[in-house]
Amino acid sequence: RSETTYALIAPEDQMIKDQIVVRKGGFLGMNSKLFLAQKLDRSKFNRFNMKTQKSFEIGAAEDDFTIVSSHDMDSFELKSEGEKTTLTIKDESLFWETTKYLVIAID
Q: Which of 43, 44, 48, 93 could form a disulfide with 53 if both were Cys (CB 3.0 to 4.6 A apart)?
């Protein structure tokens, strides 16, 4: 089993432009949600080893970003300090079980 994982933390509008995420649902754009695109371009992502990369710095307050990829809520924690949030993985097997991609869109 590969220990390689991929992460992208970037502004939402750039991710939409790069076709990493798409907005779906809602009415006239209101209450729409972000989803991962069907096909992801790995060249847009940073590569990590799931065994050694335990935390990710997010350059935004907790209310100003969306974790688009699907990860078990019990497998990580978020800690905010002003305009910076750190995502710390508590259980890497559980965190990376659903997807090998971590995608965080900054509003």
A: 48
